Write the structure tokens for this entry.
Amino acid sequence: MIKIMLVDDEYLIRAGLKSIIEKLSDDYQVVAEASNGYEAMEKLCYQHPDIVILDIKMPEISGIELGQWIRENYREVFIVFLTGYAEFSLAQSAIKLGAVDYILKPTRKEQIEAVLQKLKEQIYSAKNQSVYVDLLICRENQLYPQRERLLEYGLSIEEACLPVKGVTYRAVEYINRHYDENINLKHLSEHLFINQTYLSELFKKETKIPFALYVMLTRIEHARLLIQNNPFLKVYEISRMVGIEDPKYFSQIFRKYLGMKPSEYREHLD
């Protein structure tokens, strides 16, 4: 799911954009709206959108200023400016400052769809490469799974960075979008119109990790992020949100790969 924030001081423009975006595809979800830069800064802290679409001219904090702030504090967020013909030169200058694209007012469905489709491919590609790599790379003051459990599968950090393509890319993309559902190799092979055995062998060959383990690590990684960003969620709620119905089993798996129970991991973050 691609999470989008809309920032514009005009409610009708935000409402129109939201309606167009959410009708385009189930891949997109408008998770937050803001009518000014200060509100946008506050919501960015806990909504963590993938894309921010913001008006280039707003009161108090301009779109350019807000875009610069986002670029400095949330470098992974893609910025798209809304602009009229009168501010077109401003939008072109903003591209040089780090914005990725612009949408002209009055907005047209075709332009919005083209911009979002281009960004969707970049975002999913980045997520595909990072969702389990982060589990392997040890960083200061953070907890990651015990290396020996992953090395059993012959997976090294360098190999984890190996790019995937074609059928495997589509498989990884599907897993990262549907990890909270009942995913199995048979269902995925039917979805991709690929022989199940061939898909299993190809997936392991290109990612260096078995299909079932990739699904589980994806769920654990998302669970870890949910614990970090949502301190009031219960363990059983997180378990269901990542596609594991049995909270007890979820805790066992979480402990297996991260070395402690979800509750202990949360205490470690405090």
